[in-house]
Description:
Layout: H1 9-13, H2 19-28, E1 32-35, E2 49-52, H3 55-64, H4 67-83, H5 85-88, H6 103-106, H7 114-127, H8 131-147, H9 151-173, H10 181-198, H11 211-217, H12 222-242, H13 246-264, H14 267-276, H15 278-283, H16 327-339, H17 346-360, H18 366-382, H19 386-399, H20 402-413, H21 417-431, H22 435-448, H23 459-473, H24 477-484, H25 497-507
Antiparallel strand pairs: 1-2
Helix pairs in contact: 4-7, 7-8, 8-9, 8-12, 9-11, 9-12, 10-13, 12-13, 12-16, 13-16, 16-17, 16-18, 17-18, 18-19, 18-20, 18-21, 19-21, 21-22, 21-23, 23-24, 23-25, 24-25
Amino acid sequence: IGNPDSVNNYEYMFQGSFFEQTLEALVEQKFLVEINVEMSDLASMDSVMYRFRSTHEQAVINGLMLNDQKQRTHFEVAFYYQSTHGRESGETPSDSDDVSGSLSTDITIIPTRNWQLFHITALHYDLAGAHLPALLQYYESSVQLASLGMRGGAHGRLLSAYLMLEKILHEATALDIYVDETTKQRQTVASQMVRIIGNKDLSDLLKGITKEHLRNVFDGDILALKTTLSMLTKFGQSVGTIEQEGYKFGSELYLQAILLVLLVLDDDAFANLTSNLDSFLKETNIREVKHSGIPEVDKNKGFDSDTLDSDHFSSEDFDLDDLAISFPAFSGLLTFYRDSPIGANQVQETFLANLFVAVTQEADEMIHVLRTKCILSHLYLKHGNIRKALEECEGIKDIYDHDAYSLQLVNTYGMDWSLLCVGTMASTYLFRGQFTAAQRLVDFLTEQMHVIDEFASSTKVMSRGTVSSYYLRLFDLPRAYEMSSGIAATQYGYFFKEHGTLQEKLASKE
């Protein structure tokens, strides 16, 4: 609980100065029991944990509390846990911290692993009805778990974060706020664009949501919205690789991310976007947003979103000025349209691909150029323009540098799509009878197998399947088996795992 000389936040929270005496009395009366916890779960040996001796008594006592009391208690606990995050990672608390003493004397059950601490904090915020901070803490827990390679745990935390977002958006739909004509026009155009991409109406949860609604439910904190967009794209990637028929729900997540981006995008950037898509907007009867109809942006505000924190922001500056955060949503949705039986039509794919090209023009980074080229190459291939598809792929191979781009592509887009595109084009050359060109790309892929990170994504195992299939077609079983060996045992449930497993079995036969 804490040393007598330290500031005990639980005393403040329960508005009493006899908290420890009360605990002792509860133990004597056999309501509570002190429990031993493994050292790995404690911040130090000075910490103490208690639990109710009877779960029935716990339920009765909890039931006697008013909901407001419960939520306030959970919020105070969550806020206190959150204040320990920096010190848990070795950072020095600021002078503004309203707690003192070492970690071991301030709190009783702080876990030693960051993902646990973020998760516990999120749970308490969730129970307190504080959905936005709960979302942020669940997401941070998923990031920590993903960095440890614990994909299942990370997936579960992303799901919890998404459920918080649903509650936030439900709150937004219930708001009765003033929305000016410019904001309404933005909402109309953005919604129509997403309807074209998804080939269906928006869900009831998203209908009528405007920038002003989002500003309100996110408390004007654009960084919180950016984190939410990252959560949506990461969850979409996770759903697509882990869940059965994950492309269905994954596509919904990506569409939500794209809509939110279009709603809060900086006015000038949105005007540039619609200008670059002028011909497509007219073809699909989407009302064009003229630049003259958008308020001028004050260039002298001195606002820098990268240095913004949740305790210091202006609610007036609720503009997304960095489109890169949305790129994984465009990329992921295009991948689902191309590789899954989702049934997207050519209008959907073409409009989405050109929208993706338009947004990447706002960023001058090579990984986005590579990803866009991959998208275009596969789109050309799907619609029969083989020459252009191969041309784009050769450009990817010329630009590609593993050390410079591979992990960046994985972290941003979920996989090293450059290598997957090269693999697809190797197969294309093979079926066209261009064996020399195919072998050149296969040799390139084989070389990359020695350096690519096997645990960062499923890129390596998918590439192994591609190379193995090439050698199977040439009846070179020893090389095919060497490449396919172990595919069935991998944890990745990617689209073509069954194909890779079949190759492994075929290659092992004499």
